[in-house]
Amino acid sequence: MDAFRISNLVKKYGSVVAVDDLSLAVPSGSMFGFLGPNGSGKSTTIGCLTGLLDPTAGAIEILGQPFDTNSIGLKRRMGVMPETLGLFEPLYAHEFLAFVGRMFGLDEATTRTRVSELLQALELTDSSKTLAEYSTGMRKRVAFAAAVIHSPEILFLDEPFESIDPAGVALMKQWLRRFTAQGRTVFITSHVLETVERLCDAVAIITRPGKLVWQGDISVLARDGAIAFDGQEFRALEPLFLHLTGQRYADLNWL
Questions:
Q1: Which of 58, 127, 142, 222 could pair covalently with 9 via S-S, beta carbons 3.0-4.6 A apart?
Q2: Using one digit for the tens of pLDDT, what is the confidence trace for 67-100?
Q3: Cα(243)–Cα(248) distance, rounded to whole angstroms?
């Protein structure tokens, strides 16, 4: 069964096309990377998949059911960490996580227990600072905790590791591997291709404006294998990504 399926998704902002006829199927239980250059439509696609944005055209199916912005029941089965984080910064971390837990229908005792465990594990126990006073990395940890507190079936993570220290990233990776081992699904956007290569089972790569150029299994790279494409062999994700997206950078001889 697919965790979700996108069919001919289009999203426009006025005359500007952000996502163009995107079709994609993500299997349940996978760690799936969604890659593309800046401005290629990754965050817009996640916005449509999580009900934050209305698609201009196309269809989305989540856990075998049609999905739109009014699908409250399906939204409760997702966890979302948006790139903008979406925190209520005047609150303290424990207040914000308690609010999120209750919003997702957790009872008071379960909410209290999970908030305490998350704060301890993610080293967020300093109750003297509001979220506005946290560093960027600490705010990202809170946003990650908010995405997982209700133990969702699908987890959407938009640039989850940026600004987080190595110990925090290692812990998050451990949790995500356990998450997918239980048959649940993680959908990640990231510009850190080495992390995606080591963590994900498969990836989809898009270019501007939101057009799919490649989708495939990348687990062979972790076994020192190669991906054959366009008459070439790629032994790492970065050269494959650069080849597919056509990104070339001019050399500056004065640097």
A1: 58
A2: 988 999 999 999 999 888 889 989 999 999 999 9
A3: 9
Closest to 190 (Cα-Cα) out of 12, 59, 36: 36
C-alpha separations of 147 from 123, 125, 141, 159 in Å: 17, 18, 10, 13
Look up the CATH superfamily of 2-219: P-loop containing nucleotide triphosphate hydrolases (3.40.50.300)
Amino acid code (one letter) for 162: E
Give the integer Cα–Cα distance in Å for 142 and 139: 5
From the list 251, 248, 247, the residue with the least C-alpha distance to 36 is: 247
Here the tokens at position 129 are 């600072």
Domains in the chain: boundaries: 2-219
Residues 6+ apart with CB under 8 A from 254: none
Per the confidence metrics, is the pTM higher than 0.85? Answer: yes
